[in-house]
Amino acid sequence: MAETAPPLGQHSAASGITCVKKLAESPDLNSIPSNYTYYTNPADTMASDPHDSIPTIDLSLLTSDNPDHRSKAIHDLDKACQEWGFFMVVNHGIPEELMRAVIDVTAEFFNLPEEEKPEFQPENVLEPIRYGTSFNTAEEEVFWWRDFLKVFVHPEFHCPHKPQSLRDVVMEYCKRNREVVRKLLKGISESLGIEESEMEKCLGLESSLQIFIANLYPRCPNPDAAVGIAPHSDHGLFTLLIQNQVAGLQIQHKGKWVHANPLPNSILVNTGDHLEIFSNGRYKSVLHRAVVNKTKARISIAVANGPSADTVVSPAPSLLQTQGCRPAYVPMKYKDYLLTQQGSQLNGKSILRRVQIQD
Ligand code: OGA
Ligand code: NI
Q1: Is the overall model pTM greater than 0.90, yes or no?
Q2: Going by CA atoms, what residue is nearest to atom 6 of ligand 1?
Q3: What positions does the domain Fe2OG dioxygenase occupy (predicted)?
Q4: Which end of the chain is less packed: N or C, by CB atoms within 10 Å?
Q5: Counting atoms of ligand 1 from 1, which one is nearest the CA of 146?
Q6: How far apart (Å, rounded) are the C-alpha atoms in residues 294 and 284?
């Protein structure tokens, strides 16, 4: 009998799999259990340093009153999104103490006793507060060496009620992230040659969906066999990432894996699937992954910034008109896209391929 897909919103992520933090803390753990072996060839986790350095975007220039500075910054942003899908933002205005605080308070959340966390482990993958491990253990046979906390923070703000300071810190950090994203998107609307108001309307930016994702990658006895997060692209427009000084993010550039080691206090930004769709393929979402290491636990905070959940996203109409080209992606409601992605096994750009129109 053919399997029927569960109704919308019913994809389950629950399972009896324990978090990797607990597993990593077992005193006699000398090697990873076989269901964490993702790479069988150690060379597969390797990456090189990029030959040309990762682009840097100076946010203060992007919003400068000086038209020459602004147009140079917009040109740089356009180039970074086209050639890399990835860049570091400097002069972003987010205080260093806030960036540190969000990482510290997240560590406190992961350090809560496991018995206190089941209330944050819902069945449904689109619940606004979700603590878990790997990506979607109900769908996976090989698990990732990563625990996570995913919280929907905009348009409605949610947050676990403990640790106590989590709420204020996450709220402020995510608000400041939205300000950065709005500035980047304004730059993008200019580089695409479309009105900012058209972009706002087409993407429903007033009620943009923002998801706060905290990732914990504990120390791992076999870092060249396990994976922290397998290669994937992000679903939204832009993801903003910071980390606790421990490296582990790799991005695919010109077909090769390269290390993404950020400048101190910069924010790493990557393009997501919906920027690719909206720009009709001008800005491709970038493949990236997280690797793990033997000596230091890593925490990263990835804030996913998308269109509004109920918006049906398609390539920008005026872009198609001025360029006289056909849409390369079929329209899809962002919420449905998200549900498909979160309810699947995450694998490269497989979800984006479903909406891509093949010539
Ligand atoms: C993510 C992600 C990478 C990292 O959360 O989507 O790609 O370095 N994280 O933690
Ligand atoms: Ni990602």
Answers
A1: yes
A2: 234
A3: 207-307
A4: N
A5: 10
A6: 33
